[in-house]
Amino acid sequence: MSFADRIAKKINQLNLGRMFFIVLITGSLLVMGGILYVIVNNPPPLYGEGPFAYGLNRQSSVEAFVVAFAYAVGIGGLYLLYTTKRYYYDLRFLSMNIISGTLLLLLSLLLLQSIYAMKVGA
Question: Fewest 10 Å CB contacts: which of 69, 76, 79, 122?
């Protein structure tokens, strides 16, 4: 087996499609969280205000990652609710998936609403 064949075999074992999907989802979550806004605009210093910049026209770098995490939790909850249809024969697993997915969605919603309330000053 030649060197090129061994490299091709290793690349096929890496499952690049799955890695590309994970990188794509992670990048999308960061963009939705506002990392581009933080890169383009100068974020406020963390020692002055804390992790969340007050006001709707400002965003800190920590806030972008927290918002991206909240979006990821919400997407995880939606995925759990989406996959419940596979387990219609096992009622216990089905109910646990529905409860877990709903709780993850509510946790994401509460986290995003509390961040918004802190930024507005309510």
Answer: 122
